Amino acid sequence: MFVKPTFVWYYTIIMIANFRDLGGLPVGNNRVVKKGLFYRSATIDFATNEELDEYKKLGIKVGYDFREKGETHGDRAYEYIGAEHRNIPASYKNDKLFKLKGGGMLGMVFREVTWEDVAPTYEHLPLNNKAYKALMNSLIEEEVPLMMNCSAGKDRAGIGATIILLVLGADYDTILEEYMRSTEAQHFNEWVIGRIIPKFAHKYVFSHFHAFFMVYKELLDTSLNKIIEAYGDYETYFEKEFGITAEIRQMLIERYTEEVKEEE
Known about the structure:
This protein is α/β, with parallel strands linked by helices. It has helices at residues 49-56, 76-81, 95-102, 104-109, 115-124, 130-140, 156-168, 172-180, 186-194, 202-208, 217-231, 234-242, 246-256; strands at 20-21, 26-28, 31-33, 38-41, 62-65, 84-87, 146-149, 257-259. The strands form two sheets. The chain has a five-stranded mixed β-sheet with strand order 1-4-7-5-6, with helices on one face.
């Protein structure tokens, strides 16, 4: 049975997991991200037409799908909501996890996957990633509203959202709080995995491979630290990775953020 994931948004009937608008998040200088421009989500492949009808109302122009080709289930959901489906994998081959899988079923049975095993993926995600280069080009070309998704909406979509927030001026605490909200994807992950493995194995899989279902502050820190290690500061990272100069960045901040309106 499907367990409805918990999330905070104004369309409570939508069953798509880990969905949210980055709008309203503070970016400094008494400004916030404008609402209705940047959305992030888990896969929308399992949504019903009734659920997708609500997505239509958002006017999403581009759906960035950061999954590998074998993870996707076609264009139907994106076509239904009127969004261009851009399936550009953001994944990185994690040799540590690959070796673990290469040990066969017996090796997997006696091995617990931790966040440290996932960390090499997070080291490479923000660097020379064609998916995020395309995403940032959409900001420059004003291709909004846009949505980012991967399978659970927590890792690949999480770093995509992090890069957007960094460019727009959000501080670490804001980015971390937004990233950690993806704990709400856990039930959805369990539901998806539960569709492809025997029921008797659920408890074992969820306990031994919890790193695949949860989010960890340490993983976000891994990506951010790698950026600084590679470039020294975020400004150099923006320019070298995405061609976003100080002038372009200021233009993006003015375009996609607004002053906090004081209550009367």
